Amino acid sequence: MVANGQDITKLLIGSAEQSILVSLRINDEAGLKSDTMELTVDNREPFDIPPIGSLVEVWLGYEPSPVPMGKFRLDHWELSGPPSILTLTAASAELTTEIKGQKTRSWHDTTLGQIASKIAGEHSLGLSIAPDLASREVEHIDQQTESDLNFLSRLAKRNGAVFKLADGKILLAEKGSDLHPSGTQKLETKITPSDVVSWRIEESERGQNGSVKCQWVDHEAGKRKTVTAGSGSPVQRDKRLYRTEAEAGAAARALLGDLQRGKRSGSIEMAGNPALYAGCILGLSGFHAAVDGQQSVSSVTHELRSSGYTTSASFESV
């Protein structure tokens, strides 16, 4: 761990006898939720508290190649006792007050890629977006007293995508896709029952929808028209009214995908595995014929304690 450019790893876990680390937790989330870090230390010998706003970089894993977990900005600390305990919390360094500030503006005759590129430039962020998403046409959309953070999340949801701030970039990828936004293949992480401490997988009636219908306004014909994604019953009807056939079609496909992915979900807990991150692909094998196969990870928690390093993940069917 590095705080404001200073390596404090040995200070935290110099040895088993001298370690002041109580716990380190990294929460990796997809979408609007920010990645967070929580560090708890034994403060009986007062720890030098970094100033609010300090940059903290974290790596987790095993020698000789620990994996970077991200950069975070310290936003809160708390002292409690007895015994004296210090808890530091931090959010993703990309989550600045500027990107959370509300704006009012309209976007016309553009694409999802052009919108994301402009917002990335306004906040000095890079951009990585799947080519298919980048080319999606946006005839008109209003950003009404809405932060860029929320606006991008709304655009992503409407287009069946997942939005995330990480590594100094805006990331937009197809939800459940086995491709990175750059187009390269994601590595599948194979998981068997012997790899995990505990697991749970469930299926519900949610996701049994056969099709989704969305309406749009055909101004030339002077009437509403309907776009359908999927086939059969039951039918889910979106109450929103879209401006173009393309927007309605993208929304219908996105909603159908969300419903189908929500049909089956689960979670695992295992010995620490730094290869797991929100958006990665799990390959389950040996659990049950009904659930084996690819799963898309929606959130991951990495936790390091004196008792060891563990990873827990929530996932849904691809």
From TrEMBL:
Gene3D superfamilies: Baseplate protein-like domains. It comes from the Bacteria. This is Uncharacterized protein. It comes from Croceicoccus naphthovorans.
